[in-house]
């Protein structure tokens, strides 16, 4: 959470930092701030609110001049969102200024010590404590800024990506990382700092990703010195060439990133299997998997750890792995798994799923599984992310940057990867017949076309959204492979429209939720042609008998449910094991349109952030 940006070079820093903050706003958006060195002084402006509010404020508050600058967009951890708690934060002398993404867990004891030494604090943040600790070390031990940062960071417990500079040494920025991401863009005689590469992609394709417990001293027009914070060892900078392009991080004519990302699904699903799935030849080849296939097929069980939407993708995988590859699967919330002393052995394979690759709970679950000797496989979207580096091997989804806070294309591309893994394992294990295997490959290859067809119902779904936009509760029901889709549909609705929604296995309805049903309750039922069709039809009858309103997701050509339901949303026919890839599309669109009609901030819903780097 929180986005950080910095620049040091020969251009004006203000537009680079502001533009970068706009791109990182998905990481946090309750306050924003900027500090520039104008050649003499620090120009600092910060405010509660969004980057647009910061720009208005900066217009009257600062000169906007200077070729060194740092900026921050916040998702509050310590201290409510207000002007004072916004970053950047000054040290007491006013010489040092810092931005920080993360949490300093032992800030309270450090703060007490600093207060005893005469320091005062304006904000409630842990960050202001850190910058004053750096100042204290610098003064007391008479060391340069880089050394002071290093010593101070050795005293703190927690997570951080920081950037700090000193008014009296305005030709360098010191950055450091532990647990929160930090990328350094390397241009010609200029350097960029950011939580991800999106703020600098139009300036350079060359980036260095700091590893945990590394810090860097970035000097204007000169070089970067990277050190390990604990051991003081110098690290040779490893410059990567990025594949990202500017179009991928802009809205491209859509009103919202979420809608753009929903519409990107046919192409990103294809990107995710391109070169990995050769349907005609019956080949699935995943680079990260090949060598480890014996581990998977000999595993006692597969444990999937993830959070939120990624956890829902894990639930879909449970069905497909058990159904096709006959390997027992357990799906765990990473946040629960890590704290409940789980039984993990060397014979377990753990799959960690994460769009951002930075989710703190998932990362902690991975560390725990590794400690216990399990083999850990990662499925991440963000290349070079912490989880992708912490896992033993893995597969990237190729969804491209997902900027809308509500996850859409990450979900379908995660399922695409998981399906390919399950099919590959099933083939090697011999738990699937050749004809069934070939059929699945051909059908998976058709999914982009089916998703594109499902998207054609957009106008109709918008009309349905208009009917139900004022409902205060929704129930989502699905069975088998589509039970996790019901959960995901409910999550999408609640996170962007703030309407209470619950996902439930359709058959469980009669064990409780049926009590909720009356004429005011819209019930979204995934009622596609499948093994459970007849049973789901009965559930629909039960809801109708209690005057509930049915919005059904049906297979093209369905007649039975069409008769019963108040509204239907059609999806193309595909084998049941692949249906989550298509049934999820109308549910994404439904929640999108309801949120737009309710005037909600679709891309940046309240209280949320795109990557959850706090526990
Ligand atoms: C929901 C959503 C979140 C994330 C969750 C995990 O739309 O985006 O529930 O799925 O925070 O994030 P990652 O996948 O980045 O680990």
Automatic annotation (TrEMBL):
SUPFAM superfamilies: N-terminal nucleophile aminohydrolases (Ntn hydrolases) (SSF56235), SIS domain (SSF53697). It comes from the Bacteria. Keywords: Aminotransferase, Cytoplasm, Glutamine amidotransferase, Repeat, Transferase. Residues 2-221 form the Glutamine amidotransferase type-2 domain. It is found in: Cytoplasm. NCBIfam families: glmS (TIGR01135), PRK00331.1 (NF001484). Catalyzes the first step in hexosamine metabolism, converting fructose-6P into glucosamine-6P using glutamine as a nitrogen source. Homodimer. This is Glutamine--fructose-6-phosphate aminotransferase [isomerizing]. The gene is glmS.
């Amino acid at each position: 959470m929180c986005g950080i940006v910095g620049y040091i070079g020969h251009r004006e820093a203000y537009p680079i930092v502001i533009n970068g903050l706009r791109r990182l706003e998905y990481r946090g958006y309750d306050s924003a701030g900027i500090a520039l060195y104008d050649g003499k002084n620090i120009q600092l402006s910060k405010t509660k609110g969004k980057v647009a509010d910061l720009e208005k404020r900066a217009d009257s508050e600062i000169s906007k001049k200077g070729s060194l600058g740092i900026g921050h967009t916040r998702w509050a951890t310590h201290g409510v969102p207000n002007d004072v708690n916004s970053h950047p934060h000054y040290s007491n002398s006013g010489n040092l200024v810092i931005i920080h993404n993360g949490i300093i867990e032992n800030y309270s004891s450090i703060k007490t010590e600093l207060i005893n030494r005469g320091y005062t604090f304006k904000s409630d943040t842990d960050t202001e404590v850190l910058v004053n600790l750096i100042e204290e070390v610098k003064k007391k031990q008479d060391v340069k800024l880089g050394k002071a940062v290093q010593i101070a960071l050795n005293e703190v417990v927690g997570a951080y990506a920081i950037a700090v500079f000193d008014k009296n040494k305005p030709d360098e920025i010191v950055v450091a990382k532990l647990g929160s991401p930090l990328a350094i863009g390397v241009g010609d005689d200029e350097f960029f700092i950011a939580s991800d590469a999106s703020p600098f992609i139009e300036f350079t394709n060359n980036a260095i990703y700091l590893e945990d417990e590394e810090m860097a001293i970035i000097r204007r027009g000169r070089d970067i010195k990277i050190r390990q914070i604990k051991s003081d060892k110098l690290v040779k900078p490893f410059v990567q060439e990025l594949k990202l392009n500017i179009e991928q991080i802009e809205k491209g004519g859509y009103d919202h990133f979420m809608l753009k990302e929903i519409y990107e699904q046919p192409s990103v699903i294809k990107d995710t299997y391109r070169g990995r799935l050769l349907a005609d030849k019956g080949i699935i080849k995943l680079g990260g998997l090949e060598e480890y296939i014996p581990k998977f097929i000999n595993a006692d069980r597969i444990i999937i750890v993830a959070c939120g939407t990624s956890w829902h993708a894990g639930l879909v995988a449970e069905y497909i792995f058990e159904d096709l590859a006959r390997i027992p699967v357990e799906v765990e919330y990473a946040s629960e798994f890590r704290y409940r002393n789980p039984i993990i052995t060397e014979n377990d394979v753990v799959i960690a799923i994460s769009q951002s690759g930075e989710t703190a709970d998932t990362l902690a679950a991975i560390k725990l599984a590794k400690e216990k000797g399990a083999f850990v496989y990662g499925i991440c979207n963000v290349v070079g992310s912490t989880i992708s580096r912490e896992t033993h091997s893995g597969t990237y989804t190729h969804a491209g940057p997902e900027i809308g806070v509500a996850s859409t294309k990450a979900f379908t591309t995660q399922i695409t990867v998981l399906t390919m893994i399950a099919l590959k394992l099933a083939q090697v294990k011999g738990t699937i017949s050749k004809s069934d295997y070939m059929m699945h490959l051909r059908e998976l290859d058709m999914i982009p076309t089916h998703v594109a067809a499902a998207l054609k119902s957009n106008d109709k779904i918008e009309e349905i959204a208009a009917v139900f936009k004022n409902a205060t509760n929704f129930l989502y029901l699905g069975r088998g492979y589509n039970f996790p889709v019901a959960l995901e549909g409910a999550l999408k609705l609640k996170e962007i429209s703030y309407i209470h929604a619950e996902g439930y296995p359709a058959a469980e309805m009669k064990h409780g939720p049926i009590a909720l049903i009356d004429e005011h309750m819209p019930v979204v039922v995934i009622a596609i042609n499948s093994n459970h069709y007849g049973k789901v039809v009965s559930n629909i009858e039960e809801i109708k008998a209690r005057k509930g309103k049915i919005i059904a997701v049906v297979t093209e050509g369905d007649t039975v449910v069409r008769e019963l339901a108040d509204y239907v949303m059609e999806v193309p026919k595909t084998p049941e094991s692949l249906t989550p890839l298509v049934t999820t599309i109308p549910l994404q669109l439904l929640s999108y349109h309801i949120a737009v009609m309710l005037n909600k901030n679709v891309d940046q819903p309240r209280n949320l952030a795109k990557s959850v780097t706090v526990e």
